[in-house]
Amino acid sequence: MVFDVKGTVLEAQKGETCAFECGENTIFLNKEELVIIADMDGMPKHQPNSISVSDVFSIKNVDISTGNINFDGSVIIEGNVCVAMKVIASNDVIVTGYVESAAIKANGDIYIAQSVIGHQVEDEFDGFGNTTTLIAGGNINAKFIQYSNLRAKGDISVEQYIAQSQITLHGNLRIGREDKADGKLFSCYIQAGKSLQTGVLGSISGAVTTIDFNHLLDALDEYKDKLKNKSISTLEKTQKICEIIEEIENKQIDRAELLQKLNLALGKTLPLISKLNRQYYENDELITSHRAEIEVIATDCIYPGTEIAIVDGISSFQREYDPHRITYNNNKIVQEPIVHD
Prior knowledge:
Shape: flat
Strand content: 35-45%
Largest sheet: 16 strands, mixed
Radius of gyration: 31 Å
Distance between the termini: 91 Å
Number of helices: 2
Structural class: alpha/beta
Number of strands: 35
């Protein structure tokens, strides 16, 4: 019972029945339509008389007030990712600000509008390491990167420079503007994929910058060896089956059931040998084509302390070089000066 200030009893007003409506990516739990549930993983959004679910999670900043983010979908951060924070997304991560001493992992692309900055720390067991980590199943884009660990299955594009970082990628690495690779890459260790384009390669101080193209080539060679070994063992098994079949037939032994099983096994191993041989030669062609894609272009200069490793060759630059292009041709590293018009 409710009273007003004068003690008068106030009668309760009857409420109106609210009709629920399904929003985007939601369904009713039952025919009574009183409970709405999500039809997919994502971020719930309240609406008048309804609720929807989005596969995009938006937030201002990621800091100690928000905690870490782990989202099944894409994450848009309309600000910064601050020190010691983690962001994990099953799709893309977009940051309109900067990333400092934080970790981002995305199955898709990672786009950072501003800087990616970390610090070098000393670990008792692992030596020196960096406090920022970016891991992308696709591409990584940023304005500049320093003291960071980068891993991308796609390309990495940075507008200004990358310094004091460890990089592993499968695609192309480009530092500079869209119309010209005029950025800087120095004091880094790079497990490169295909091509690398920058303006300045290395540091004027002579600090070591290493570019190693062998991590993908080694993986392809290792897979090639596995295919070869499996093909040999399958062939040996096939030959053994054929020998047993021949022995049974020559001795005219009544082993119809055994012969049937052996012929069935033979019918499986012969196509497998064909498949393994096809995969072996396809992998061999992939190794050849990948070697042809390897390229390093420095449009400004290459400083001493720069090392480039391709297959079993290493180019160590002991002095400053003008603009150069480095490729792998006829089983050797080839250096060619770039002549600007």
